[in-house]
Amino acid sequence: MALRTEHEIHGRRRSRNVGLGVVLLGFVALVFGLTVVKVQEGGLVEGYDHQPRVSLTPIEPQAPAVARTPVQEVTE
Amino acid sequence: MTDINAYEAAPEGEFRDYVALLKPRVMSLVVFTAFVGLFVAPVDVHPFIAFCSVLFIALGGGASGALNMWYDRDIDAIMNRTQSRPIPSGRVEHSAALGLGLVLSIISVMMLGLVANWFAAGFLAFTIFFYAVVYTVWLKRWTPQNIVIGGAAGAFPPMIGWACATGGISIESLLMFALVFFWTPPHFWALALFMKEDYHNAGVPMLTVTHGRRVARRHIFAYTLVLAPFALWLGLTSVGGPLYMAVAVVLNAAFIRGGWQVLRRNEDAAIADGYLVERRVFKLSLYYLFLHFLALLVQSWMGGW
């Protein structure tokens, strides 16, 4: 016959376990919600991805045309 | 031969005993003032970010409450008011309270930094340190001015809320700090006047014990006078408005009047009617703070000057 009698201490342990479980699930839900909100608020986020991308290069003021010499173009 | 031994088992508390370590009633004040500080700030915050910010500020406040209960377990066991707390009543081990307090401090500061900004997170860390170390460990048992300086810990939450939205400090948030800061001493000394034996038995240097009740009455009145200009000044800033001003004028007049009545009474009169006026001023002080912040909230919703 299995022991079925439950001591009062088991009730207290269950209260702790269930409580902590609910807190942890709530925390997971919170972090998920935060991720969604932060990504939405961030707009189009682009980072450096090992290759120069036009959308990420800083906009430089247009250099005067005379500054570019043919020699430079060849060396490039 | 077999011996039967009964071991002194470690206490096992329920979940709510651990929640009680976080001082839920103090937390409710933190939640409310932090929320108002965040809401009235001139920067719009996404509602979910605002919710999470207030949650982690409250958690930080709760963590400092657990650290306070861990350190104060010896005097909590003596005072009537605190005897039923989880540690003195034997439901939670004191080391568990220390662990919970430290872990929740770290989690709340890290999460606030990720949710809002690192200035607000640093501010929260400083507040926890201030309450748990500066107030609980250094000042509380050493000087009768303990609650004056310790009151700063309770006054930081609206500033942290403001910092979550704006990332900084400004005159409005400093004045919200001043409002709670100067409100704390008359609030607690009014309580100390009619809870007389408790602090004395525990050896906590309350002003009523070290300098006498006459001095405490004078201090209560003086602080209501100091408090009023700051409360009204707040009404002149960008977060103020006609509604806030009206509320502030009425409440400060009532609080100063209450302080005056406390000052004019002597102990015989107070004992004769069971500290009726002192209890009334204490109750008024609760409404005073709640209504000021509520007025700020409604004023911000209505639009200010």
Account of the 3D structure:
- The complex is a heterodimer of chains A (76) and B (305).
- With 76 residues, chain A is mainly alpha-helical.
- Chain A is built from two helices and no strands.
- Chain A has helices at residues 8-42, 70-75.
- Chain A is rod-shaped, with a radius of gyration of 31 Å.
- The model of chain A has no long low-confidence stretch (mean pLDDT 77).
- With 305 residues, chain B is mainly α.
- Chain B has two domains: 14-168, Orthogonal Bundle (Tetracycline Repressor, domain 2), CATH 1.10.357; 170-305.
- Chain B is 76% helix and 0% strand.
- Chain B contains 14 helices and no strands.
- In chain B, helix 2 (24-40) packs parallel to helix 14, helix 3 (47-71) packs antiparallel against helix 7 and helix 5 (94-115) runs antiparallel to helix 6 (118-139).
- Chain B is flat and about 85 Å long.
Shape of chain A: rod-shaped
| Series of secondary-structure elements of chain A, N-terminal to C-terminal | HH
Distance between the termini of chain A: 87 Å
* The level-1 CATH class of the largest domain in chain B: Mainly Alpha
Strand segment tally of chain A = 0
Domain module count of chain B: 2
Largest sheet of chain B: none
Q: Compute the number of helices of chain B.
A: 14
Write a concise synopsis of the structure shown.
By secondary structure, chain A is mostly helical. Chain A contains two helices and no strands.
Give keywords.
heterodimer; A: 76 residues; mainly alpha; 2 helices; rod-shaped; B: 305 residues; Tetracycline Repressor, domain 2; 0% strand
Mind sketching the topology for me?
The complex is a heterodimer of chains A (76) and B (305).
Chain A (H helix, E strand, L loop, with lengths): L7 H35 L27 H6 L1
Chain B lengths: L14 H7 L2 H17 L6 H25 L1 H4 L17 H22 L2 H22 L6 H21 L4 H24 L1 H7 L4 H4 L2 H24 L5 H23 L2 H6 L3 H27 L3
